[in-house]
């Protein structure tokens, strides 16, 4: 926990556990109800400072924070790997992205503008006007365990760029890198009143922030269930919800099967499948389905899994034992629904072995729900319409990928697949930090990416002059 630039010590602590071996790696003070009211009162002061701060100064702070993160790359990487279970190389990749996200946020601060408004569209008028984009006030950022640094930057960077104050509630399992980020921001020149980090369970700390009338914006990344609970309780607030998915790939028979298999290896098993846009479903045209399954099996068998701190490890552990049990349940349910486990389907210590399931019913959990595990289901299709129908037949719609050299098929999928992002000849797990990122249906509301998030963290203020 961090308030007014200092870590706060409490008798009751949140223990941070290494998911690979269940060892305690750190302990942070657990936030109390008084800390919530204190943090909000301080953030009100911070908002008064930040909204008056020149945009160039806010951009300078964010740019300097980016530099600090880059200088401490290994410190941040080790903290992320230890608390989240992602491999040390995955953690380094996240730190590099966070460096870029803060730079993009600095640019967003400089580019934020309004527009003029015409009043002579229906006749002569002496009026002239324009609107400004002004900050909302206090932004509450609630972030997940799987990208504890970069997804925090995606919320905190644009909020500060716009002139808001931030209260950050990181995932209870991964609070260390969030506190480190706040300390870097303050070192870079952010007023200590501008950010607080509260640590504790979402049901208590997070919900109190969600309901508090002084908080003007909730930016949340997490599950659909929690997102629905937040929107039902937040009242008249702006919300951005980046929720779950079970992202699909469609591979037509004209696609390069070996390349698609390599893409699915990366997109389905990175961070042990615990990514919102992780590939969970693959639909392959029936003529090449067996060839694809053989190619994917050969790729998946090469994945080195185990201790996330070893340089050669490609896939680390799952975040906790409940997640391991859920992955096992999905596999058992798939078998009950006619699916065949091609490889994996079980845990080894705290690692769930990379798993492929073939020919599973479209009513199974692994097709309809979010596994958030290293599990990929491979099913067949015969027509373009059938593939589109199967991709769309879930409550989620974050990103999907289509592999084909036929422009007609590609465009049909682009028009008809209901998702926030449709990638042609690329895996749906692809994301760069400047693109508009978000979903449809149960996958969320709003868009992230600093240029897009900053607009959702401001409101238009109209100013009109009349000639008298």
What's the arrangement of secondary structure elements?
Layout: E1 2-3, E2 6-7, E3 13-17, E4 24-29, H1 33-52, H2 55-71, H3 73-84, H4 88-111, E5 115-117, E6 127-135, E7 138-142, H5 150-162, E8 165-169, H6 176-187, E9 195-197, H7 202-211, E10 215-221, H8 224-233, E11 238-242, E12 248-251, H9 257-269, E13 281-285, H10 289-300, H11 321-336, E14 340-343, E15 347-348, E16 351-352, E17 355-358, H12 365-368, E18 375-381, H13 384-392, E19 396-397, E20 399-403, H14 407-416, E21 421-424, E22 440-441, E23 444-445, H15 450-456, E24 458-466
Parallel strand pairs: 7-8, 7-10, 8-9, 10-11, 12-13, 12-20, 13-18, 17-18, 20-21
Antiparallel strand pairs: 1-2, 3-4, 5-6, 6-24, 11-23, 14-17, 15-16, 19-22
Helix pairs in contact: 2-4, 2-5, 2-6, 3-4, 4-5, 5-15, 9-10
The CATH class label of the largest domain is: Alpha Beta
SS elements, strand count: 24
CATH homologous superfamily title of the largest domain: Aldehyde Dehydrogenase, Chain A, domain 1
Structure class:
alpha/beta
Mean pLDDT: 97
In terms of DSSP E residues, the strand content is 15-25%
